[in-house]
């Protein structure tokens, strides 16, 4: 049958109008492309939140290409936000070089557009610092994050929800290097913001409760810690699903809680769940896997199942050595665990070898670990009647105690007395 004649509202008239008004047509096309780029970015962000990382990367790269085409270069906030999100995805997947490059590019763009002290630049520095923690550079991570957080705290017009997330991230970083009181302070600041601005069912609210639970666990308030942990689990798992990367992190923390309350069997169950999620997402060796393996070793150690404990700690040690090298603080931590296991099994020479490796690869930020390790070696060598070695390590330990604790501290005085007795 013949085609109907076009009505006044058909595409034929629109096309005719566009030919008469090319400027209007061009603006319409640009707006269409802007909307498409924005939708792709939102899609990538949502997929990232859902744990669909391949789809997230694809959408984010498409968004970046469109924004570059529209702007003529990468120097715009939209592209910086894409890089920031791509950095987060790469961090989860343990693509360390890619993650670092993305975070640094986001900071570079924000800084060029707005200066170093703009909220966007500062928050981007916080996420980069969080990556540095995951990449085993805690010292630099603390330095970068500290500067950014202190400026953000006193700044007007900062997005409140993002500020809460920054406080939570900073608190987690402080906790990982033993600054527990400061960490607790920032977890509370996060709670004051996030619980006001987000719905109770939001996963970030769950992580607020999780962080508060960790603080209470470290303080020894197990009952309140358990309440917060249960609240976290009741929110995070329904919000994200059983196979999400953040749920794996939750399970690792719950395992630590059960270790602290002397329930290693429950800890092992959660560690296995966490490892299964990590392995399905990352599909290669990473710090999360190492952390779960070492935690598994400690859980079996708590059950006095030393063969299993040796198996897991040796796996973790081999993986850490491959990823970070033998002379790295994270590897030294594992040598300390292996040394303790050797002592339990009366493998004294093997224990000495492990503890001496700890001293070889521990950085300045771990001065307390050095001191504790030297004290262990002092006891071992005293037990072997090797007084010259014992005196040598006690002398070094004494110097560290004086520096860290001061001459008036009881621990320093006790160590000094022992040192003087050994010299007689």
Largest sheet: none
Could you say which overall geometry the principal axes of the C-alpha atoms support? elongated
Helix content: over 70%
Structural class: mainly alpha
Q: How big is the Rg? A: 27 Å
Number of discrete helical segments: 20
User: What are the low-pLDDT stretches, counting only 5+ consecutive residues below 50?
Assistant: 1-18
The counted number of beta strands is 0
The N- to C-terminal Cα distance equals 116 Å
| Average pLDDT, all residues | 88
Q: H/E element string?
A: HHHHHHHHHHHHHHHHHHHH
Name the beta content range.
Answer: under 5%
Report a brief summary of the structure.
With 424 residues, the chain is mainly α. The chain has helices at 11-20, 22-50, 53-71, 77-92, 96-114, 119-134, 138-153, 160-176, 180-197, 203-219, 222-240, 245-260, 264-281, 287-302, 306-324, 329-344, 348-361, 367-383, 387-405, 410-423.
Element layout with pairings:
Layout: H1 11-20, H2 22-50, H3 53-71, H4 77-92, H5 96-114, H6 119-134, H7 138-153, H8 160-176, H9 180-197, H10 203-219, H11 222-240, H12 245-260, H13 264-281, H14 287-302, H15 306-324, H16 329-344, H17 348-361, H18 367-383, H19 387-405, H20 410-423
Helix pairs in contact: 2-3, 3-4, 4-5, 4-6, 5-6, 6-7, 6-8, 7-8, 8-9, 9-10, 10-11, 10-12, 11-12, 12-13, 12-14, 13-14, 14-15, 15-16, 16-17, 17-18, 18-19, 19-20
């Amino acid at each position: 049958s013949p085609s109907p004649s076009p009505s006044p509202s058909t595409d034929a008239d629109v096309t005719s109008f566009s030919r008469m008004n090319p400027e209007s047509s061009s603006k319409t096309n640009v707006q269409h492309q802007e909307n498409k780029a924005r939708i792709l970015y939102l899609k990538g962000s949502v997929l990232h939140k859902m744990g669909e990382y391949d789809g997230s990367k694809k959408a984010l790269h498409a968004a970046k290409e469109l924004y570059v085409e529209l702007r003529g270069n990468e120097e715009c906030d939209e592209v910086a936000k894409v890089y920031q999100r791509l950095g987060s995805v790469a961090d989860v997947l343990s693509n360390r070089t890619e993650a670092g490059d993305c975070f640094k590019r986001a900071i570079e763009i924000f800084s060029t557009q707005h200066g170093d002290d703009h909220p966007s630049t500062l928050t981007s520095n916080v996420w980069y610092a969080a990556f540095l923690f995951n990449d085993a550079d805690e010292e630099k991570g603390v330095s970068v994050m500290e500067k950014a957080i202190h400026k953000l705290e006193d700044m007007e017009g900062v997005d409140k929800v993002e500020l809460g997330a920054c406080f939570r991230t900073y608190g987690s970083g402080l906790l990982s290097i033993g600054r527990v009181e400061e960490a607790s302070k920032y977890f509370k600041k996060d709670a004051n913001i996030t619980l006001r601005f987000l719905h109770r069912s939001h996963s970030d609210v769950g992580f607020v409760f999780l962080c508060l639970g960790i603080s209470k666990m470290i303080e020894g308030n197990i009952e309140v810690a358990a309440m917060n942990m249960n609240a976290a689990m009741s929110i995070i798992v329904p919000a994200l699903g059983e196979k999400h990367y953040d749920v794996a992190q939750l399970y690792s923390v719950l395992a630590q809680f059960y270790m602290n309350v002397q329930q290693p069997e429950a800890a092992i169950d959660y560690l296995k769940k966490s490892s299964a999620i990590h392995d399905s997402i990352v599909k290669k060796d990473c710090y999360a896997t190492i952390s779960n393996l070492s935690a598994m070793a400690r859980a079996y150690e708590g059950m006095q199942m030393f063969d299993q404990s040796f198996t897991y700690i040796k796996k973790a040690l081999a993986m850490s050595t491959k990823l970070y090298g033998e002379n790295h603080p994270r590897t030294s931590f594992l040598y300390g665990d292996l040394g303790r296991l050797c002592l339990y099994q009366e493998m004294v020479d093997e224990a000495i070898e492990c503890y001496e490796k700890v001293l070889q690869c521990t950085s300045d930020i771990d001065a307390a670990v050095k001191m504790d390790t030297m004290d262990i070696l002092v006891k071992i060598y005293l037990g072997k009647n090797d007084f010259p070695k014992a005196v040598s390590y006690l002398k070094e330990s004494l110097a560290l105690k004086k520096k860290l604790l001061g001459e008036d501290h009881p621990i320093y005085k006790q160590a000094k007395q022992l040192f003087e007795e050994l010299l007689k």
